[in-house]
Amino acid sequence: MQQQNFDYDLLVIGGGSGGVRASRVAAGLGARVAVVESAQLGGTCVNVGCIPKKLLSHAAHFSQLADEARGYGWQMAQPQFDWPTLITNKDREIERLNGIYEGMLTGAGITVIRGHAALSGPHSVLVNGQSISARHILIAVGGTPHLPNIPGVEHAISSNEAFHLKQLPQRVVVVGGGYIAVEFASIFHGLGAQTTLLHRSQQLLRGFDADLGLHLAQEMAQQGMSFRWNEEIQSIDKQADGLHLQLKSGEQLVVDCVMYATGRVPHTEGLGLDVAGVHRTHKGAVEVDSRFTTNVPSIHAVGDVVDRMALTPVALAEGTVVAHHLFGKGGKHAPDYELIPTAVFSHPQIGTVGLSEKVARERFGAVQIFKSSFRPLTNRMGAEPENVFLKLIVSKADQRVRGVHMVGEGAGELMQGFAVALQCGATKQQFDATIGIHPTVAEELVTMREPVRE
Ligand code: FAD
Predict the structure, then answer these.
(1) Which of 155, 143, 168, 140 is nearest to 48 (CA)?
(2) Active site residues per annotation
(3) Does residue 268 line the site of ligand 1, with CB under 6 A?
(4) Which of 13, 27, 42, 121 is 20–30 Å from 410 (CA)?
(5) Are 348 and 407 in contact (CB under 8 A)?
(6) How many domains does one find in the chain?
(7) pLDDT of 246-267, one tens digit each?
């Protein structure tokens, strides 16, 4: 096929974080671009991910703030929470963002095509029975929740449905130990549901520094949340009084809602990867090289579907790299996946950047660990006995700070600045030479002098 005969220079499948970013950058570089989206523009992050999750998480925090306020002299009746109001207002905000995404795309001269896209060749895609050709195709279809194949699983929900429940369930089991599980457990608990976190191991947040999960579990238990460790649901039976859960241990639980947060898988069903001859990894992700090109030179992929790090800013960075590589002067490289800061919007929050202690020890051998846990000033007068946790990991030989980890309110906001420091290769001496801001929790991160272990 001749280049001039293609309908577009770039056809993007998926109008989520990675797809929209790549489209806009490519259009800005002069490419003729179309985006195919089967659902709402903005993808997971805007519709059923980061944005609505953070709004719900914020909503759930008010009950704790109300408890604290009493210690500061505020007299108030027990506040009442109304779930339909929260969901209606959240939906209104999401609709506003959907409109902004549409405006951004059309304003940049990008064609938005509604429908499900399937690859039909190295340069062609089928949408609504119509064939569209493009010099390059970008797969940015994201991921989708994975639920286990157990009897009665059709009565369970994933995070997708949690955002649209008609009422707040009174009794909830959240299954999983990853960040989505702890965030939703905190949301349900904070909003007043009797919440149990059920996990097949005894460690929360695998892949993070192990102390973070330990500290978080202690704080959540202190708030009154229940845990079932080393446990699995074998079957779910819907009865008049609720969902009857048969657990592996033999125990039975009766609840109103079971939410699985047991991982997400690449959203490649019906995408035609085999038709176009695109290779997958053993986990089903689209296999790409360092420039996000698949084994088919005209087909590229970014974001959750390539399964490097499933976070919005990562999908954005990868989308930028692809667009520059295809239509610019190149020169943009994949992000350094080890230095990506991230937050977990549980209660309390987690903020983290860099290596865990385990990985740092494997990599550098001799490391110094600085830790601190205390009840912050603002928690001392209220009912909340919450402690913050802070941890620094330093490689002994060169004194570089390799990891900064925190559990405590504001951890997400705080960690962004420390991520810049780590990106610049900051040393422990430079942390020590930095003057603290008093009185804050963050000042502790520049005043920890004695390692707790080496
Ligand atoms: P997506 O944003 O998922 O976009 C893919 C789009 O492709 C979707 O709109 C989909 O409808 C469309 N699509 C799929 N198949 C087709 C097809 N065949 N044809 C046409 N269109 C198709 N990340 C953070 O950084 N911070 C957070 O706090 C955070 N919280 C999260 C909370 C939850 C509950 C979840 C589920 C995720 C969260 N994430 C968070 C992860 C973040 O949402 C994803 O990493 C990000 O959205 C991935 O972007 P993407 O472009 O790869 O895919």
Answers:
(1) 143
(2) 438
(3) no
(4) 42
(5) yes
(6) 3
(7) 999 999 999 999 999 999 999 9
